[in-house]
Amino acid sequence: MWISRRHLWATCASPCGHLPRDGHTQARRRTGCATGPIGHGAAGDVKIPCMRRLHPGPAADVTIGELYDVPRPRAPDGRPRIGICMVSSLDGSIVFGGGSAGLSSANDIEVLLTLRRLADVIMVGAGTVRAEGYGAPRKAGQRIGVVTTSGDVDATSPLFTSGAGFLICTDETPDRGVEALRVGSGRIDLAQAVDRLAELVPDVGFVQAEGGSHLNGALLGAGLVDELHLTLSPQMVGGTGPRLADGPDVATAFDLAHLAVDEGSFVFSRWVRRGITETTSGATSGASTGG
Ligand SMILES: NC(=O)c1ccc[n+]([C@@H]2O[C@H](COP(=O)([O-])OP(=O)(O)OC[C@H]3O[C@@H](n4cnc5c(N)ncnc54)[C@H](OP(=O)(O)O)[C@@H]3O)[C@@H](O)[C@H]2O)c1
Question: Is the dihedral of CA 14, 16, 22, 27 positive or negative?
Fold first, then answer.
């Protein structure tokens, strides 16, 4: 979804092998990444996406895997946990130049990809699919649910021809020849959709919602946002871009689970809905990254 603008890599201080660029499954087992020389960049050096965790203390250099690959218990009522992943400008826009790419960075993309590896299901609004384009997932067995009332999606795109994409829609949404989870007449019942995801992905435990603004607002309105993974892009962009959530007025309190910053002044935060079980807060890596 997001295009890389640049790459921010630090060289691991621990004795390293030759990891592939996206070898975080191995990298996250290593011990931090910035106590040694940074960025000497010779062929064969290990490049680990790295940022400085400011909260919880003490401050430390951490990998993205260490920050984000944490246990995510189900919601209290037993439904899958739902986390939103977004990037925003300093002045609150989630769009610059028609999409999110102009707000993003290599580390932000790595956060998105890390969370995708942890998710069983991706949920995304049809507006975002139309604006940004979505392909087949990299993770075997992962499904991508596109929320739409109109059914206006490209059923011939790899997202759907791969068999991974499906529609989350109403009884009235036209049949597009792709699998459809029909949840409600007239309007989409997102709570019912979440409850029925297990029909498509048994044991679904973590759902990543990837926007846009209207889907986020509807999830928030339905009380279905358990965590927010928010990257703050260090720029103001003006314009009339949407906010993180566009929907009914609803105040939902969150607690800060982690806060980190990288060399480019991008700020990475994870917020967990107040009252949701949180067994760890970023200092300790979980063990569930699929690779
Ligand atoms: N910065 C970021 O991290 C980020 C992330 C994602 C997206 N974006 C940007 O956000 C923009 C899109 O945002 P958006 O708010 O317009 O789009 P959106 O929420 O992705 O999609 C809106 C469309 O999705 C369907 N939809 C979503 N929620 C629905 C609900 N609860 N009930 C029924 N239908 C629902 C409808 O589709 P139909 O019209 O087909 O019925 C609606 O028109 C794009 O410019 C994209 O680049 C930014």
Answer: negative
**Separation of alpha carbons 199 and 144, rounded Å:** 14
Measuring from atom 32 of ligand 1, which residue has the nearest CA?
A: 188
Q: List domains and CATH numbers for the chain.
A: 10-66 (no CATH), 73-273 (3.40.430.10)
Distance in angstroms (rounded) separating the CA atoms of residues 156 and 223: 33
- 196: amino acid identity, one letter: R
pLDDT digits (tens, 9 = 90+) for 176-204: 999 999 999 999 999 999 999 999 999 99
* CA of residue 141 to ligand 1 center, whole Å: 24
CA of 105 to the centre of ligand 1 (A): 22
pLDDT at residue number 1: 36
Q: Which long-range contacts (CB under 8 A, 24 or more apart) does 153-159 make?
A: 153/126, 153/129, 153/178, 157/133, 159/129, 159/134, 159/135
The pTM for the full model equals 0.85
Percent of the chain past pLDDT 90, that is, above it, reads: 77
The partner residues of 261 in beta bridges, in order of sequence, read 52, 267
Instruction: Please say whether the beta carbons of 53 and 260 come within 8 A.
Output: yes
